[in-house]
Amino acid sequence: MQLHIGVIRGDGIGPEIVTEAVKVLNRVGEVYGHTYSFEELLLGGASIDVHGVPLTDETIEKAKSCDAVLMGSIGGDAKTSPWYQLEPSKRPEAGLLAIRKALNLFANLRPAVLYDELKGACPLKEELTEGGFDMMIMRELTGGLYFGERKTVEEAGVMTAYDSLTYSETEIRRIAKRAFDIAMKRSKKVTSVDKANVLDSSRLWRKVTEEVAKDYPEVTLENMLVDNCAMQLVKNPKQFDVILTENMFGDILSDEASMVTGSIGMLASASLNETKFGLYEPSGGSAPDIAGKGIANPIATILSAAMMLRFSFDLDKEADAIEKAVDLVLKDGYRTIDIMSEGKEQIGTAKMGDLICERIQ
Ligand code: NAD
């Protein structure tokens, strides 16, 4: 297969970790007979340095012409970087929000996986996490409270603020279908999270999700209230497969779920639109404190590349091979600094990439 992939190296540790993910993709290409054309794209601070703005129309157009985009993190140290002397709409992060919007990326996927090998980093009791866990949070990204009408008014000398939470049937159906499609590639369970005992938008969310479920008889749908879900994530995380939820609930729950896995350097993510196109990136930031030292953990970016193969190209075998290689490297006792523990061998970014490549057979 010929894969046309946009590559945004980004800022801080971005170029280091993306280099390793590209190395791993090339290894997969050698083993499974795929070829790539990589298109380098500028975003964030790197784009400001060249063009004076964090995102150009040229980057958007080039990204649209790719089958998928792999990205490192963007941004710098807000206290020292000149990018933060610019007005907010010209700073690196504005470019990220703008590209997500321009590409209509409405579905955000964040896996939260606890590797048995790293369970020491999990803050939960061992009996709750024995054997590890593996869940996928699917968060709606372009609707709901963060995009609804808002205003602040003063009435009779009292300030009052309004934010509105709106979802249309169409917005709910398109993300629910995505969640069920993804559950079909996993353990075939969707937990849809809402607040249907209080909110109209949640009652519509539940109704539409139940309608979509009828088209997926193999997938079990469970509805859960968001307050209960927040508790269940720390009480029994093993019960979850795909968690489907709206924008604000997903914002909070995905951070909670990632916390229980222990390390930011291991967390992949994807943002998808209605086609097979997706933007794949690590969940963490550009870590300016360790940039250029060759010590960043590239695994989140490498696992994001595996998600890209699985969700944009349906190359499940190849994605499995990457995930298995990561598991093997951890089992063999290799660690980057962020996941280091006693008795293990500490290695740098490039060595981690090499060892993962060696284990892709
Ligand atoms: P951060 O995630 O960059 O760093 C938090 C801590 O985690 C740091 O100690 C860092 O060294 C460590 N860390 C993060 N990724 C790591 C990795 N792969 N390996 C080892 N250690 C790792 O968060 P921050 O410091 O709040 O933000 C730094 C910059 O990143 C800011 O400019 C912020 O806006 C930006 N940011 C970008 C994205 C994105 O591109 N999607 C996301 C979050 C933050």
How would you describe this protein?
- The protein has 12 helices and 14 strands.
- It has helices at about 15-30, 45-50, 55-65, 90-100, 125-130, 170-185, 200-215, 225-235, 245-260, 300-310, 315-330, 350-360, and strands at about 1-10, 35-40, 70, 105-115, 135-140, 150-155, 160-165, 190-195, 220-225, 240-245, 270, 280, 335, 345.
- The mean pLDDT is about 95.
- It has a 10-stranded mixed β-sheet with strand order 2-1-3-12-11-4-5-10-8-9, sandwiched between helices. The chain has a two-stranded antiparallel sheet with strand order 6-7.
- It is globular, with a radius of gyration of 21 Å.
- By secondary structure, it is an alpha/beta fold.
- A hairpin with a 5-residue loop joins β11 (about 270) and β12 (about 280).
Strand content: 15-25%
Tell me the structural class. alpha/beta
Distance between the termini: 18 Å
Q: How would you sum up the major sheet?
A: 10 strands, mixed
Helical percentage: 25-40%
E-strand count:
14
Bound compounds: nicotinamide-adenine-dinucleotide
Low-pLDDT parts are: none
- The Rg value, from CA coordinates, equals 21 Å
Lateral arrangement of strands in the main beta sheet: 2-1-3-12-11-4-5-10-8-9
Indicate the mean pLDDT.
95
The geometry reads as globular
What is the tally of helical segments? 12
- Topology order in helix (H) and strand (E) letters: EHEHHEHEHEEEHEHEHEHEEHHEEH
